[in-house]
């Protein structure tokens, strides 16, 4: 980022304005003339002094702010949720086929219904974002609830109606084609079940053919919480009941070799000047659907963030932060971190065993696989070295289905007594 001094020397016409902007990320001032702010803050910009630095005001304080961290107010963004593209992606069978083909995922939900079938008798259940309705059909066929509200906003709901009739569940299951937030229901529900998880737990990455194969993002968990607050009875059950994000320091030799070392000797030619371009193109964003080999884990994984779905609030989702401290368990190359999630389903029976869906490298593979965060450069590590730091999931204040993930880490070699300087890397998902 441009330093202040360079800004004053650049030959640019400053632009006097008075306009409100939203901060996309936190910014900590590094000089008295700069103004710190947090993601989501509103700043009044008085002068665009140069391309990179503007003179702004927040709560009566004035200072220079980096323009890259700011975005015009949300009114200028026609559809912060991109709902039309999002729900159209679920209107075809492609994504539903992928989810239904994921045996560990779908079988876990079936097991939850089977193991709670007695307690479900006479209960009212909502299946939020039911898709083709498979969980609702499990409820209708494997248990005796009083009613199941199968809620689905996309056009796949038309097929869901047929599936409910075909599987003789229409006496119990009612399909509502609606955004769940807009629902009017006859009663509150005893159980809110949903399969809302995405890569890195919160954000599912969809390739939207409707949008010319561009990437779209989910962020369904906010809908789940809003519907919980509106329609779940006091003492009602959330399935999943809790969810956790796990992290592990790992090797990724194949990725590093194929995307970075590849350029060093290409048919006897030196293409290494492209490595910075390759680093930006291939390693600046997370790699989704990475199949992490358990042997590439350099330490035991740890749960860095845990969400209690009964108490989590929408405002908690703006920024989630978890700390970690790993001891390297075997010598190798630290290329980065891998992340995945687990969800837990509490039993409706007092003292009943919870069920777990674990999408990590030691469990049966799911369609989510794992997510790989590559450092800019590999770090040789020895057994006994220590990697400590934090991971922060920051929602985008403008694009409400987007977020960024920042990983900060320090190293302490096994024979050292102090940690290295802090390193940090921000991975946007997607703006
Ligand atoms: N990561 C996932 N499992 N995504 C499943 C998403 C399914 O829920 C549907 N869905 C997502 N959000 C909502 C919502 N607020 N209301 C109704 N259906 C929804 C979506 O159309 C798709 O069929």
How would you portray this structure in words?
This protein is of the alpha+beta class. Helix content is 19%, strand content 36%. The chain has ten helices and 22 strands. Helix 6 (134-142) links the parallel strand 6 and strand 7. Helix 4 (103-115) runs parallel beside helix 6. The radius of gyration is 24 Å and the shape is globular. Residues 87, 90, 129, 131, 151-154, 156, 179-181, 195-198, 204, 218, 220, 223 line the site of ligand J7C.
Return residue spans where pLDDT drops below 50 for at least 5 consecutive residues.
Answer: none
Beta-strand fraction estimate: 35-45%
Structural class given helices, strands, pairing? alpha+beta
| Share of helical residues | 10-25%
What sort of overall outline do the alpha carbons produce when their principal axes are compared?
Answer: globular
Produce the secondary structure layout.
Elements: H1 4-9, E1 15-23, E2 42-48, E3 53-58, E4 61-66, E5 70-72, H2 83-89, H3 94-101, H4 103-115, H5 117-120, E6 124-128, H6 134-142, E7 147-152, H7 157-166, E8 173-177, E9 189-194, E10 205-208, E11 214-217, H8 221-231, E12 232-239, E13 242-250, H9 253-259, H10 275-283, E14 287-290, E15 302-308, E16 319-327, E17 332-345, E18 355-358, E19 370-381, E20 386-395, E21 403-412, E22 423-429
Parallel strand pairs: 6-7, 6-9, 7-8, 9-12
Antiparallel strand pairs: 1-2, 1-5, 2-3, 3-4, 10-11, 13-15, 13-17, 14-19, 16-20, 17-18, 17-19, 20-21, 21-22
Helix pairs in contact: 4-6
Bound molecules: ligand J7C.
